[in-house]
Amino acid sequence: MGVRIHEVAVRAGVSVATASRALSGQRGVRAENRDRVLAAARELDYEPNAVAAALRSRVTHTIGMIVPRISNPFFATLVEAVEGRLQDGRRSLLLAGSHYDPEVERQQVRSLLDRRVDALVAVPCHQHHSTETIGNAAERVPVTQLDLRVDGFHGDWVGVDNEAGVFQVVDHLAALGAHSLAFVGSHPSDSSAQARLDGYERAAARHAHHSGPVLLGDFSKEWGRQAAEKLMDSEGLPDAVVCGNDTIALGVLAALIERGVRVPEEVMVTGFDDIPYAELSRPALTTVRQPQERLAAEAVRLLTSVMEGEQRPPQRIAVAPDLLVRGSTKR
């Protein structure tokens, strides 16, 4: 039989109630008593019953997180960043994926809530169809939207300034002498796809002679390949292809190189996100870096403040991205 909390209390010289509060992180315990209890627990190798503690306190020290696709390198590294921040606060992460399907998302969020998560970090899969799911979740637990956001929900959001990032890309290409551009992105079903498309159209309008074809599909390498094939089969290639994310750009790069098109000498290519593979491509991909550690830190900070009872209006934090110039545009 394992060590009981009564034995920890005796070793620390405190009551069982004090030992319980100290081990669960509750307030109202003097610092010296908390230190003695934690030391006694370590000495006795005490392992608390997390399920019983959660039932008593109604707090599980678990945060739920829903993302559109766990296999997407951008979301995978974002999850790691959030998990690292939560571990600093001695909380664990329970992860689910929606597969870009609002109905799957609804079921997954309900499952996370049924597992009694204390709060939810949400990367909603659809700008419109995810609104009800996020709103219903916010009626039960604190919710912070990260990266993507839905219309009609007045809660906390942390993300990158997508339009500013695309403006940096277009200005960079114009400065390199690009006179014709093409945009390959995703249909604007989520907020980032919409913002990047809007940013491209506004930036291209500022350089009127640079505007060119806009091809929309999804955020996948396969779509990048297909779009590049369409561009190569048209009458003339543009000077540069602006891509809605890095996975699209990697598909564009692969298709161009397979057809013998030289990058960047004949066509320049840019991405968005700076996933780990972007720097490993040949040539290395010029892209817009999203500062994921900072995004995660801000999201967890906002979520924690609500969980601790802070009364404040909802906040929307747009973090400025950085343009990373690499071989796919260096001539």
From TrEMBL:
UniProt keywords, alphabetically: DNA-binding, Transcription, Transcription regulation
Residues in HTH lacI-type domain copies: 3-57
InterPro entries, alphabetized: HTH_LacI (IPR000843), LacI/GalR-like_sensor (IPR046335), Lambda_DNA-bd_dom_sf (IPR010982), Peripla_BP_I (IPR028082)
Gene3D superfamilies for this protein: 3.40.50.2300, lambda repressor-like DNA-binding domains
CDD domains hit by this protein: HTH_LacI (cd01392), PBP1_LacI_sugar_binding-like (cd06267)
Gene Ontology terms for molecular function: DNA-binding transcription factor activity; transcription cis-regulatory region binding
Superkingdom assignment: Bacteria
Pfam families recorded: LacI, Peripla_BP_3
Descriptive protein name: LacI family transcriptional regulator
Source species of the chain: Halosaccharopolyspora lacisalsi
